[in-house]
Amino acid sequence: xxxxxxxxxxxxxxxxxxxxxxxxxxxxxxxxxxxxxxxxxxxxxxxxxxxxxxxxxxxxxxxxxxxxxxxxxxxxxxxxxxxxxxxxxxxx
Length: 92
What we know:
Elements: H1 2-25, E1 34-41, E2 44-52, E3 61-63, H2 65-73, E4 77-78, H3 84-87
Parallel strand pairs: 2-4
Antiparallel strand pairs: 1-2, 1-3
C-alpha cells in the first residue's frame, strides 16, 4: 500500500528531473545590446549609468540604441569599463 502512495511522488520527481535536464540544454538568450543601470529613489527609478549589454559591471534594464544615445546626451554617466559612449561614437 505504501508503494502505491510513493508512485506519484516518484513520477513527479522523474518528470521534474527530465524538465531540468531539458532546460539545461537550451542556450541562454543573448545579452541586450545596451542596458541602463538604475536605482530606486522616492521619486521613482533614477538611471545611473549606461552599459554595453554584455558588461558585467552593472545590472540593468535592456534599452534600445537610440535610448542609450539619448540618455548619454542628456548627461547620464557612461560605464567607465565597457565604454558605451565610445561604442556609440559619442566621444569627443
